[in-house]
Amino acid sequence: MSDEILQPEAAADDLAFEGALRPGSLAEFVGQQKVRRQLQLLLDAAQLQNRAPDHILLAGPPGLGKTTLAMIVAHEGERPLRMTSGPAIQHAGDLAAVLSSLVPGEVLFIDEIHRMARSAEEMLYLAMEDFRVDIMVGKGAGATSIPLELAPFTLVGATTRAGLLPNPLRDRFGFTAHLEFYETDELHQVIERASRLIGLEIDTDALREIAGRSRGTPRIANRLLRRVRDYALVHGGAADHAAVSAALELYDVDEHGLDRLDRAVLSAIVERFDGGPVGLSTLAVTVGEEAETIESVVEPFLVRSGLVTRTPRGRVATAQGWRHLGRREPAPEPRLIDDL
Ligand code: ADP
Questions:
Q1: Quick one: which atom of ligand 1 is closest to the CA of 58?
Q2: Does the residue 332 lie in any domain?
Q3: Is the CB of residue 18 below 6 angstroms from any atom belonging to ligand 1?
Q4: Which of 9, 173, 251, 273 could disulfide-pair with 5, CB 3.0 to 4.6 Å?
Protein backbone atom coordinates (compact mmCIF):
# COMPACT_ATOMS: atom_id res chain seq x y z
CA MET A 1 0.00 0.00 0.00
CA SER A 2 2.85 2.31 -0.91
CA ASP A 3 0.48 4.91 -2.40
CA GLU A 4 -1.34 5.44 0.87
CA ILE A 5 -0.69 8.69 2.68
CA LEU A 6 -1.66 7.07 5.98
CA GLN A 7 0.60 4.06 5.72
CA PRO A 8 2.69 4.09 8.89
CA GLU A 9 5.79 2.57 7.27
CA ALA A 10 8.42 5.05 6.10
CA ALA A 11 8.22 5.95 2.42
CA ALA A 12 11.33 7.08 0.52
CA ASP A 13 10.45 10.77 0.75
CA ASP A 14 9.90 10.51 4.51
CA LEU A 15 13.47 9.60 5.27
CA ALA A 16 15.26 12.92 4.75
CA PHE A 17 12.45 14.80 6.46
CA GLU A 18 12.29 12.39 9.38
CA GLY A 19 16.03 12.58 9.95
CA ALA A 20 15.70 16.30 10.60
CA LEU A 21 12.74 15.88 12.95
CA ARG A 22 13.81 12.98 15.12
CA PRO A 23 14.02 13.97 18.76
CA GLY A 24 17.60 13.51 19.95
CA SER A 25 16.95 12.83 23.63
CA LEU A 26 14.40 11.18 25.91
CA ALA A 27 13.44 14.63 27.19
CA GLU A 28 12.46 15.72 23.68
CA PHE A 29 10.61 12.48 22.92
CA VAL A 30 6.88 13.21 23.21
CA GLY A 31 4.47 10.82 24.98
CA GLN A 32 5.07 7.16 25.97
CA GLN A 33 5.75 8.48 29.43
CA LYS A 34 6.00 5.13 31.17
CA VAL A 35 8.39 3.72 28.57
CA ARG A 36 10.50 6.87 28.73
CA ARG A 37 10.85 6.63 32.49
CA GLN A 38 11.64 2.94 32.34
CA LEU A 39 14.28 3.51 29.69
CA GLN A 40 15.78 6.42 31.57
CA LEU A 41 16.23 4.25 34.65
CA LEU A 42 17.86 1.52 32.60
CA LEU A 43 20.27 3.95 30.94
CA ASP A 44 21.11 5.76 34.19
CA ALA A 45 21.87 2.48 35.98
CA ALA A 46 24.17 1.38 33.15
CA GLN A 47 25.91 4.74 33.20
CA LEU A 48 26.52 4.55 36.97
CA GLN A 49 27.99 1.08 36.65
CA ASN A 50 29.91 2.01 33.53
CA ARG A 51 28.54 -0.91 31.52
CA ALA A 52 26.49 -1.42 28.38
CA PRO A 53 22.74 -1.13 29.09
CA ASP A 54 20.63 -4.32 29.03
CA HIS A 55 19.21 -5.49 25.72
CA ILE A 56 15.98 -3.72 24.84
CA LEU A 57 13.01 -4.92 22.80
CA LEU A 58 10.70 -2.27 21.36
CA ALA A 59 7.35 -3.61 20.25
CA GLY A 60 4.53 -1.78 18.54
CA PRO A 61 3.00 -0.76 15.22
CA PRO A 62 5.17 1.07 12.67
CA GLY A 63 5.78 4.81 12.95
CA LEU A 64 5.49 5.09 16.76
CA GLY A 65 9.16 5.87 17.43
CA LYS A 66 11.08 2.59 17.75
CA THR A 67 13.98 3.65 15.52
CA THR A 68 14.01 7.03 17.19
CA LEU A 69 14.29 5.42 20.63
CA ALA A 70 17.15 3.18 19.47
CA MET A 71 19.00 6.28 18.31
CA ILE A 72 18.30 7.99 21.62
CA VAL A 73 19.66 4.99 23.58
CA ALA A 74 22.93 5.33 21.64
CA HIS A 75 22.99 9.10 21.77
CA GLU A 76 22.25 9.46 25.50
CA GLY A 77 24.97 6.97 26.39
CA GLU A 78 27.34 8.52 23.83
CA ARG A 79 27.67 5.13 22.21
CA PRO A 80 28.13 4.34 18.54
CA LEU A 81 25.09 2.89 16.78
CA ARG A 82 24.94 0.17 14.15
CA MET A 83 21.68 -0.29 12.30
CA THR A 84 20.47 -3.32 10.41
CA SER A 85 17.22 -5.19 9.93
CA GLY A 86 15.83 -8.71 10.11
CA PRO A 87 15.35 -9.09 6.36
CA ALA A 88 19.05 -8.21 5.84
CA ILE A 89 20.07 -11.14 8.04
CA GLN A 90 19.27 -14.18 5.95
CA HIS A 91 22.10 -16.40 7.19
CA ALA A 92 23.92 -16.86 10.48
CA GLY A 93 27.05 -15.62 8.64
CA ASP A 94 25.41 -12.22 7.99
CA LEU A 95 24.87 -11.80 11.71
CA ALA A 96 28.34 -13.10 12.64
CA ALA A 97 29.87 -10.46 10.36
CA VAL A 98 27.95 -7.68 12.12
CA LEU A 99 28.51 -8.97 15.66
CA SER A 100 32.24 -9.59 15.26
CA SER A 101 32.83 -6.02 14.06
CA LEU A 102 31.06 -4.28 16.96
CA VAL A 103 33.18 -2.05 19.19
CA PRO A 104 32.81 -2.22 23.00
CA GLY A 105 29.58 -0.60 24.18
CA GLU A 106 28.13 -0.26 20.68
CA VAL A 107 24.34 -0.25 20.29
CA LEU A 108 23.14 -2.70 17.65
CA PHE A 109 19.69 -1.90 16.31
CA ILE A 110 17.89 -4.70 14.48
CA ASP A 111 14.63 -3.46 12.98
CA GLU A 112 11.94 -6.04 12.14
CA ILE A 113 13.85 -8.54 14.24
CA HIS A 114 11.04 -11.11 13.81
CA ARG A 115 12.05 -11.46 10.16
CA MET A 116 15.61 -12.64 10.84
CA ALA A 117 16.66 -16.13 9.66
CA ARG A 118 16.16 -18.92 12.22
CA SER A 119 19.84 -19.92 12.16
CA ALA A 120 20.81 -16.33 12.98
CA GLU A 121 18.31 -16.24 15.84
CA GLU A 122 20.07 -19.14 17.50
CA MET A 123 23.43 -17.44 17.14
CA LEU A 124 21.95 -14.34 18.70
CA TYR A 125 20.93 -16.20 21.89
CA LEU A 126 24.54 -16.91 22.81
CA ALA A 127 25.72 -13.51 21.67
CA MET A 128 23.17 -11.72 23.86
CA GLU A 129 23.85 -13.87 26.88
CA ASP A 130 27.60 -14.43 26.85
CA PHE A 131 28.91 -11.98 24.23
CA ARG A 132 30.22 -14.95 22.33
CA VAL A 133 29.40 -16.77 19.09
CA ASP A 134 30.39 -20.18 17.81
CA ILE A 135 31.53 -19.99 14.21
CA MET A 136 31.15 -23.22 12.27
CA VAL A 137 34.13 -24.03 10.09
CA GLY A 138 34.06 -26.79 7.46
CA LYS A 139 31.27 -29.16 6.58
CA GLY A 140 30.05 -32.66 7.43
CA ALA A 141 32.08 -34.87 9.77
CA GLY A 142 35.09 -32.53 9.69
CA ALA A 143 33.09 -29.47 10.82
CA THR A 144 34.27 -27.80 14.00
CA SER A 145 33.01 -24.79 15.85
CA ILE A 146 35.36 -22.04 16.89
CA PRO A 147 34.25 -19.79 19.76
CA LEU A 148 34.67 -16.10 19.13
CA GLU A 149 34.59 -13.50 21.90
CA LEU A 150 32.52 -10.39 21.16
CA ALA A 151 32.74 -6.89 22.54
CA PRO A 152 29.94 -6.22 25.08
CA PHE A 153 27.10 -4.53 23.20
CA THR A 154 23.48 -3.53 23.68
CA LEU A 155 20.98 -5.04 21.31
CA VAL A 156 17.92 -2.93 20.58
CA GLY A 157 15.40 -5.03 18.67
CA ALA A 158 12.27 -3.58 17.11
CA THR A 159 9.23 -5.56 16.08
CA THR A 160 5.71 -4.89 14.95
CA ARG A 161 4.85 -8.48 15.86
CA ALA A 162 6.17 -9.33 19.33
CA GLY A 163 4.03 -12.47 19.27
CA LEU A 164 6.10 -13.87 16.40
CA LEU A 165 9.36 -13.86 18.36
CA PRO A 166 10.37 -17.21 19.79
CA ASN A 167 10.29 -17.24 23.59
CA PRO A 168 14.03 -17.90 24.04
CA LEU A 169 14.75 -14.72 22.10
CA ARG A 170 12.10 -12.66 23.86
CA ASP A 171 13.37 -13.83 27.26
CA ARG A 172 16.88 -12.62 26.56
CA PHE A 173 15.87 -8.98 26.46
CA GLY A 174 16.33 -7.28 29.82
CA PHE A 175 13.52 -4.89 29.05
CA THR A 176 10.57 -4.93 26.67
CA ALA A 177 8.71 -1.73 25.88
CA HIS A 178 5.27 -1.87 24.28
CA LEU A 179 4.72 1.39 22.46
CA GLU A 180 1.14 2.65 22.39
CA PHE A 181 -0.65 4.80 19.83
CA TYR A 182 -0.40 8.48 20.75
CA GLU A 183 -3.16 10.71 22.06
CA THR A 184 -4.23 13.67 19.91
CA ASP A 185 -2.62 16.12 22.38
CA GLU A 186 0.69 14.33 22.07
CA LEU A 187 0.57 14.33 18.27
CA HIS A 188 -0.24 18.00 18.49
CA GLN A 189 3.04 18.51 20.35
CA VAL A 190 4.92 16.37 17.81
CA ILE A 191 3.79 18.45 14.83
CA GLU A 192 4.04 21.74 16.65
CA ARG A 193 7.70 20.98 17.17
CA ALA A 194 8.06 19.73 13.57
CA SER A 195 6.45 22.85 12.12
CA ARG A 196 8.88 25.00 14.12
CA LEU A 197 11.79 22.96 12.79
CA ILE A 198 10.69 23.27 9.16
CA GLY A 199 9.80 26.95 9.58
CA LEU A 200 6.09 26.51 8.81
CA GLU A 201 3.61 28.98 10.24
CA ILE A 202 0.48 27.07 11.08
CA ASP A 203 -2.35 27.86 13.46
CA THR A 204 -3.45 25.81 16.45
CA ASP A 205 -6.76 24.77 14.88
CA ALA A 206 -4.94 23.35 11.90
CA LEU A 207 -2.47 21.49 14.11
CA ARG A 208 -5.31 20.01 16.14
CA GLU A 209 -7.12 18.87 13.02
CA ILE A 210 -4.01 17.16 11.64
CA ALA A 211 -3.30 15.52 15.00
CA GLY A 212 -6.85 14.14 15.13
CA ARG A 213 -6.52 12.53 11.74
CA SER A 214 -3.13 10.89 12.16
CA ARG A 215 -4.13 7.44 13.44
CA GLY A 216 -2.25 7.97 16.69
CA THR A 217 1.03 7.79 14.74
CA PRO A 218 3.77 10.46 14.73
CA ARG A 219 5.11 9.41 11.32
CA ILE A 220 1.68 9.99 9.78
CA ALA A 221 1.22 13.28 11.63
CA ASN A 222 4.53 14.54 10.21
CA ARG A 223 3.58 13.37 6.74
CA LEU A 224 0.17 15.06 6.82
CA LEU A 225 1.84 18.23 8.05
CA ARG A 226 4.05 18.14 4.98
CA ARG A 227 1.07 17.76 2.63
CA VAL A 228 -0.64 20.71 4.30
CA ARG A 229 2.54 22.75 3.91
CA ASP A 230 2.55 21.84 0.18
CA TYR A 231 -1.09 22.77 -0.15
CA ALA A 232 -0.62 26.18 1.45
CA LEU A 233 2.47 26.78 -0.67
CA VAL A 234 0.84 25.87 -3.97
CA HIS A 235 -2.38 27.74 -3.26
CA GLY A 236 -0.58 30.72 -1.80
CA GLY A 237 -2.73 30.67 1.34
CA ALA A 238 -2.20 30.20 5.04
CA ALA A 239 -1.67 26.78 6.62
CA ASP A 240 -5.02 26.97 8.42
CA HIS A 241 -7.96 24.74 9.16
CA ALA A 242 -9.37 25.18 5.63
CA ALA A 243 -6.05 24.15 4.09
CA VAL A 244 -5.98 21.02 6.28
CA SER A 245 -9.51 20.03 5.26
CA ALA A 246 -8.83 20.60 1.58
CA ALA A 247 -5.44 18.85 1.58
CA LEU A 248 -6.69 15.82 3.47
CA GLU A 249 -9.78 15.53 1.33
CA LEU A 250 -7.50 15.45 -1.67
CA TYR A 251 -5.60 12.56 -0.11
CA ASP A 252 -8.75 10.69 0.92
CA VAL A 253 -8.25 10.93 4.67
CA ASP A 254 -11.58 11.21 6.46
CA GLU A 255 -12.36 13.20 9.60
CA HIS A 256 -11.46 10.29 11.89
CA GLY A 257 -8.20 9.64 10.08
CA LEU A 258 -9.44 6.58 8.20
CA ASP A 259 -7.95 6.14 4.77
CA ARG A 260 -9.10 4.14 1.77
CA LEU A 261 -7.83 0.82 3.09
CA ASP A 262 -9.28 1.28 6.60
CA ARG A 263 -12.64 2.06 5.06
CA ALA A 264 -12.34 -0.87 2.67
CA VAL A 265 -11.74 -3.25 5.59
CA LEU A 266 -14.55 -1.79 7.68
CA SER A 267 -17.00 -1.84 4.81
CA ALA A 268 -16.04 -5.41 3.88
CA ILE A 269 -16.94 -6.50 7.41
CA VAL A 270 -20.20 -4.56 7.40
CA GLU A 271 -21.39 -4.88 3.81
CA ARG A 272 -20.00 -8.23 2.70
CA PHE A 273 -20.12 -10.16 5.96
CA ASP A 274 -23.07 -8.51 7.66
CA GLY A 275 -20.94 -7.09 10.44
CA GLY A 276 -18.90 -10.26 10.99
CA PRO A 277 -17.42 -12.30 12.47
CA VAL A 278 -14.96 -12.73 9.63
CA GLY A 279 -11.50 -14.30 9.66
CA LEU A 280 -8.34 -12.35 8.90
CA SER A 281 -7.37 -14.21 5.74
CA THR A 282 -10.86 -13.96 4.21
CA LEU A 283 -10.82 -10.26 4.97
CA ALA A 284 -7.38 -9.84 3.38
CA VAL A 285 -8.52 -11.58 0.19
CA THR A 286 -11.71 -9.54 0.07
CA VAL A 287 -9.89 -6.19 0.15
CA GLY A 288 -6.90 -7.43 -1.88
CA GLU A 289 -4.26 -6.68 0.75
CA GLU A 290 -1.72 -8.80 2.61
CA ALA A 291 -2.98 -10.35 5.84
CA GLU A 292 0.11 -9.02 7.67
CA THR A 293 -0.73 -5.43 6.71
CA ILE A 294 -4.32 -5.85 7.85
CA GLU A 295 -3.22 -7.41 11.13
CA SER A 296 -0.37 -5.09 12.07
CA VAL A 297 -1.52 -1.78 10.58
CA VAL A 298 -5.23 -1.56 9.83
CA GLU A 299 -6.77 -3.69 12.55
CA PRO A 300 -5.00 -2.18 15.60
CA PHE A 301 -6.22 1.23 14.50
CA LEU A 302 -9.81 0.15 13.82
CA VAL A 303 -9.92 -1.67 17.18
CA ARG A 304 -8.46 1.30 19.01
CA SER A 305 -11.00 3.60 17.36
CA GLY A 306 -13.81 1.41 18.66
CA LEU A 307 -15.00 0.56 15.14
CA VAL A 308 -14.09 -3.13 15.19
CA THR A 309 -13.58 -5.75 17.88
CA ARG A 310 -11.68 -9.02 17.76
CA THR A 311 -13.49 -12.11 18.90
CA PRO A 312 -12.29 -15.72 18.91
CA ARG A 313 -14.43 -16.30 15.82
CA GLY A 314 -13.13 -13.32 13.87
CA ARG A 315 -13.45 -9.59 13.42
CA VAL A 316 -16.76 -7.92 14.20
CA ALA A 317 -17.95 -4.37 13.41
CA THR A 318 -19.22 -2.45 16.45
CA ALA A 319 -22.35 -0.27 16.41
CA GLN A 320 -19.98 2.68 16.00
CA GLY A 321 -18.38 0.93 13.03
CA TRP A 322 -21.77 0.60 11.33
CA ARG A 323 -22.53 4.24 12.07
CA HIS A 324 -19.20 5.34 10.62
CA LEU A 325 -20.38 4.00 7.27
CA GLY A 326 -23.74 5.69 7.67
CA ARG A 327 -25.52 2.41 8.51
CA ARG A 328 -27.41 1.15 11.53
CA GLU A 329 -26.43 -2.09 13.18
CA PRO A 330 -29.30 -4.51 12.65
CA ALA A 331 -31.20 -5.41 15.81
CA PRO A 332 -30.41 -8.90 17.12
CA GLU A 333 -32.70 -11.66 15.81
CA PRO A 334 -35.76 -12.01 18.02
CA ARG A 335 -35.45 -15.12 20.18
CA LEU A 336 -38.25 -17.52 20.90
CA ILE A 337 -39.30 -17.79 24.50
CA ASP A 338 -38.32 -21.47 24.43
CA ASP A 339 -34.69 -20.55 23.72
CA LEU A 340 -34.28 -18.60 26.91
P1 ADP B 1 9.31 3.28 13.91
O2 ADP B 1 10.77 2.90 13.97
O3 ADP B 1 8.53 2.83 15.11
O4 ADP B 1 8.65 2.89 12.62
P5 ADP B 1 10.35 5.99 13.88
O6 ADP B 1 11.19 6.01 15.10
O7 ADP B 1 11.08 5.88 12.56
O8 ADP B 1 9.22 4.88 13.98
O9 ADP B 1 9.46 7.34 13.91
C10 ADP B 1 8.90 7.90 12.74
C11 ADP B 1 9.00 9.42 12.80
O12 ADP B 1 8.06 9.88 13.74
C13 ADP B 1 10.37 9.91 13.26
O14 ADP B 1 11.05 10.53 12.24
C15 ADP B 1 10.10 10.98 14.28
O16 ADP B 1 10.30 12.25 13.68
C17 ADP B 1 8.65 10.86 14.60
N18 ADP B 1 8.44 10.44 15.99
C19 ADP B 1 8.19 9.17 16.42
N20 ADP B 1 7.96 9.15 17.74
C21 ADP B 1 8.07 10.43 18.15
C22 ADP B 1 7.93 11.06 19.44
N23 ADP B 1 7.59 10.36 20.52
N24 ADP B 1 8.14 12.37 19.53
C25 ADP B 1 8.42 13.10 18.41
N26 ADP B 1 8.56 12.57 17.17
C27 ADP B 1 8.38 11.25 17.04
A1: 3
A2: no
A3: yes
A4: 251
